[in-house]
């Protein structure tokens, strides 16, 4: 069992690709990768909640939920921005 956790860095992501290698750096293909092997760690600054939103439309509620998580993911001690492709 190996545990790897980066220090002094963070990245937003939606998907993770997990590749296994042996000691010589060759791909290991005879092991079925289990999604339970990976744990995502959510980092964000503690922010006070000053209001909530809820309505009868589930898609609008999901949109609001996504907005809150988007704000959390862009605020780690200082606000960050999503850079545009230039």
Care to describe what's here?
With 86 residues, this protein is mostly helical. The chain has a domain at 43-79. The chain contains 1 helix and 2 strands. A two-stranded antiparallel ribbon has the order 1-2. The protein is elongated. The protein starts with 57 loop residues before the first helix and ends in a 7-residue tail after the last strand. The model has no long low-confidence stretch (mean pLDDT 84).
Q: What's the SSE blueprint?
A:
Layout: H1 58-73, E1 75-76, E2 78-79
Antiparallel strand pairs: 1-2
In short:
This protein has 1 helix and 2 strands. It has 86 residues and is mainly α.
- Beta fraction of the residues? under 5%
What structural class should be given to the helix and strand makeup? mainly alpha
CA radius of gyration is 18 Å
**Strands, total number:** 2
How many helical stretches?
1
Largest sheet: 2 strands, antiparallel
Summary keywords:
2 strands; two-stranded antiparallel sheet; 86 residues; mainly alpha
